[in-house]
Write a structure and sequence with these properties.
Helices cover 68% and strands 0% of the residues. It is mainly α. Among the domains are: 152 residues, Orthogonal Bundle (Tetracycline Repressor, domain 2), CATH 1.10.357.50; 189 residues, Tetracycline Repressor, domain 2 (Orthogonal Bundle). The longest helix is centred in the first third of the chain and has 108 residues. The chain starts with 27 loop residues before the first helix and ends with a helix. This is Vacuolar protein sorting-associated protein 53 homolog. Keywords: Coiled coil, Endosome, Golgi apparatus, Membrane. InterPro entries: Vps53, Vps53_C, Vps53_C_sf, Vps53_N.
Length: 813
């Protein structure tokens, strides 16, 4: 052993029993804190350090052992560095140990001194608090004395006011000076309320009794004044004056019930003429003279403003009460007379009566707030549980009503009486809508579909659909003003009927008729091909065999866009009707069936466009199956049938895209549905290309790739600026066209080794074990039936093994 210093030891000396080389295991929380304070990425510093793994990491191969001396030297150097750091740290702590003890002792002495100072401060604070309590106690006593003195002075003032007021009222009663009584009575009653806590005091009780006696005496005199004014011998010659105005002021203070009686007397007196003039037996009572009723009220209100508005307190709102009572009498009388003469009502008369009534209600709504119809906000009746009896003894005319507060209660206050007869009005709307639909039909027959320029910023929606819904909205607005109940349900049924008519007579009737199906076109193409000497002569460059012309395609797109507009607008119409109708009837409103009709038209329009495009491509696909793929010797550019299909797509799809500019989602749906259907049809025709040699399979693979490239860009075909198609569309094209490519790659796969061929098939076809598809591919390769049986059995075994392995993996997971 070689010593380098008093404590240094040679690095090469290693004693296995030395405690220094034992593994030090720290608690997990301690280790976590150390990792936070001293983060390290060194493998040796890890808690789960494994020497064997670490050495294997340093020397992964035998060749790496050539650097063992360098690694050992590096480790020894690191050990020496750590030992040096440890020694320096230990020496540093030994030098500062004495200073640390001294500092700790000084800190303890400082804490003790601070604690003593805090105790002295607390003692002084307690003494200050006691002193403040003594001061505030004296202040509170002075405040109580001041409050009692103020209350005494106030009570004495009130008592003086009460005594003086009673004396003045007694004098005024004797003189029948109602102006003075009205001026004095309210303050006296208010002051008396302040003495309710002292009512058991004899003197206060005596004053209260005096006030009650005076009030009763005043009520008797006032009632007599009112009876003389409204029911006395000179009632017809009654002239408003200040004397009666003072009487009303007194009534307003002392007796709410008497106030209601006065209101009733006034209403009965002023409406008696109206009830006589417009009773059922009179000619003026019928609907054709209904405007005379409203003219009478206008004159009555003018008379009220000139003669009576100054004698009644403003908050009695007598003009509004007069109007409300008039409306209720009118509603009741109209309902009775219409019930008795129902057979005489026609649409013209009913419409006239409704228009005049709604116009009158609008005028009334602008003038009055409707406070007398809202019991909660009525200052006259809000504190009473009594009803104001109407002029005819019918409770229907109560001033306290069960009507719910509205922004204005006047719309419908009279016109609701027409609700039971609105079936006549709805029937007329039904006839009018039928005429409108017929007009639309005639317009389309005469002028055809409007010319459409196309583009995303313009709409291909038929103008007649907008006209129809505008008409619907107008009908709804008119009917909702008259009723929010059952008549609106009749209107719903009318709308539903004419929406179905519009769908059938305008949209469905104008869809192009596609009697020629794809299968019939296939047969025609086959016959056509057989009569030609060779295939290329059948399909010429740029040839188009679409059944629909551009006008028919435009019409199909227009029907689609219109149906989409109808679906959206029907939902808005339904929401609007649910806002208007009574809440209890909301659940009975549903236009779901009508929406489904227009959705079906959308689907039918898309299907017509898809069928037309498929029919255009069908002869080219048939031509593909008639080519002799077994005799092809070289791979060239894409085949003519592919060029023909692409030309069809470039011709038809831009037209459809242009006319569905405002309905992009349905254009994408058209593209997605078409490619899904077309690629499956392409694969079916691919199976019919048999037998195929290797060169023919390569040519088909090239053709398939060309088609895939075009189909991926189908939504943006022929556009200068291409737009990325939706992911779902791209996914469908890639999935289906990749299958077509894999079929051809299987055809290109040698089948010398049946097992390897089957494995390649399953790998390329994504483990598809369908026997039918496999057999079709074997026929494309030209393999005979006897050889096919062996390969099919091999496919069954390999596919069963794959399924078993997959199930085993699932169970293990």
């Amino acid at each position: 052993m070689t010593t380098t210093s008093g404590t240094d030891v040679d690095d090469d000396a290693f004693d296995a029993d030395d405690d220094r080389y034992d593994t030090l295991v720290l608690p997990s929380d301690v280790q976590k804190v150390i990792d936070q304070i001293l983060p390290s990425t060194d493998e040796i510093d890890r808690v789960d350090f494994n020497p064997v793994d670490y050495i294997n990491q340093l020397f992964p191969t035998e060749q790496s052992l050539a650097n063992i001396d360098e690694v050992i030297g590096s480790v020894k150097s690191k050990i020496r560095s750590l030992d040096s750091d440890i020694r320096l740290t230990i020496r540093g702590h030994s030098d500062t140990e004495i200073d640390e003890h001294k500092a700790l002792e000084e800190a303890q002495n400082s804490i003790l001194l601070l604690f003593q100072q805090m105790r002295e401060i607390k003692d002084k604070a307690d003494k200050s608090e006691e002193m403040v309590k003594e001061i505030t106690r004296d202040i509170k006593q002075l405040d109580v004395a001041k409050k009692n003195l103020t209350t005494s002075i106030t009570t004495l003032n009130h008592l003086q006011m009460l005594i003086e007021g009673i004396d003045k009222i007694e004098v005024a009663i004797k003189k029948k000076s109602y102006g003075d009584i009205a001026y004095l009575l309210h303050p006296v009653i208010s002051v008396l309320e302040h003495f309710q806590p002292y009512i058991n005091i004899p003197q206060i009780q005596e004053l209260s009794t005096n006030v009650k006696e005076l009030t009763a005496q005043i009520i008797v005199q006032v009632r007599k004044e009112c009876e003389d004014a409204f029911n006395g011998p000179n009632a017809k010659n009654f002239t408003p004056n200040q004397h009666f105005s003072d009487v009303c002021k007194i009534i307003d203070v002392i007796d709410p019930r008497l106030r209601l009686e006065v209101i009733n007397w006034f209403l009965k007196t002023h409406l008696s003429e109206y009830t006589i003039l417009f009773q059922e037996s009179q000619e003026l009572a019928w609907l054709d003279k209904i405007d005379r009723r409203y003219a009478w009220l206008k004159r009555a209100l003018v008379e009220y403003d000139e003669k009576y508005s100054r004698i009644f307190p403003v908050h009695w709102e007598m003009a509004e009460r007069l109007t409300v009572e008039f409306c209720r009498i009118t509603r009741r009388e109209l309902a009775n007379i219409m019930l008795k003469r129902k057979n005489e009502i026609d649409v013209k008369l009913l419409r006239f009566a409704i228009e005049k009534t709604v116009g009158f209600e609008t005028i009334v709504e602008k003038r009055f707030q409707g406070n007398t119809l809202d019991h909660a906000n009525n200052s006259i009746t809000s504190h009473l549980n009594v009803k104001v009896i109407n002029t005819n003894g019918n409770d229907d005319l109560n001033l306290t009503t069960n009507l719910k507060p509205k922004s204005s209660p006047f719309p419908g206050i009279i016109s609701q009486c027409f609700e039971d007869h609105l079936d006549i009005y709805i029937a007329e709307l039904d006839r009018s809508l039928s005429d409108q639909i017929q007009k639309f039909v005639d317009e389309h027959k005469k002028d055809g579909y409007p010319k459409f320029e196309g583009g995303e910023d313009t709409s291909n929606v038929l103008p007649t659909s907008a006209d129809l819904f505008v008409y619907f909205r107008n009908c709804l607005v008119q009917c909702s003003k008259l009723s929010t109940g059952q008549p609106l349900l009749l209107l719903v049924q009318t709308f539903q009927k004419h929406l179905r008519e519009y769908a059938n007579r305008i949209l469905t009737a104008n869809l192009p008729k596609t009697n020629t199906t794809a299968s019939s076109l296939v047969g025609t193409a086959t016959i056509f091909i057989q009569n030609l000497p060779n295939i290329p002569s059948m399909l010429k460059e740029g040839e188009t065999i679409a059944k629909l012309n551009e006008s028919e395609i435009c019409r199909s797109c227009s029907v689609l866009c219109t149906a989409e507009y109808c679906v959206e607008t029907i939902q808005q119409l339904e929401d609007k009707m649910k806002e208007k109708i009574t809440k209890s009837l909301i659940d009975k409103i549903s236009f779901e069936s009508e929406r489904n009709i227009f959705k079906a038209i959308i689907a039918e329009s898309i299907q017509i466009l898809i069928q037309d495009l498929e029919n255009a491509c069908e002869p080219a696909l048939t031509a593909m199956t008639k080519l002799s793929w077994q005799t092809i010797e070289t791979v060239g550019d894409q085949s003519l049938y592919v060029t023909t299909i692409i030309n069809h797509l470039k011709t038809i799809v831009p037209i459809i895209r242009n006319h569905l500019g405002s309905s992009r989602k349905y254009f994408i749906q058209f593209c997605t549905t078409f490619v899904d259907s077309f690629i499956k049809k392409f694969i079916n025709h691919l199976y019919r290309c048999k037998p195929i040699n290797m060169i023919g399979a390569e040519q088909l693979l090239l053709d398939t790739h060309s088609l895939k490239t075009v189909l991926l860009d189908l939504p943006s075909i022929n556009l200068t600026v291409s737009r990325k198609p939706p992911q779902n569309f791209t996914k469908i094209v890639l999935k289906n066209m990749t299958r077509a490519e894999m079929i051809l790659k299987v055809v290109l796969t040698p089948h010398d080794s049946p097992r390897q061929f089957v494995k390649n098939y399953l790998q390329l076809m994504n483990n598809d074990g369908d026997i039918s598809s496999f057999q079709k591919i074997l026929e494309m390769k030209g393999i005979r039936r006897p050889e096919q049986a062996h390969l099919i059995e091999r496919l069954k075994k390999e596919h069963a093994a794959i399924i078993a392995s997959h199930q085993q993996q699932i169970q293990q997971q």
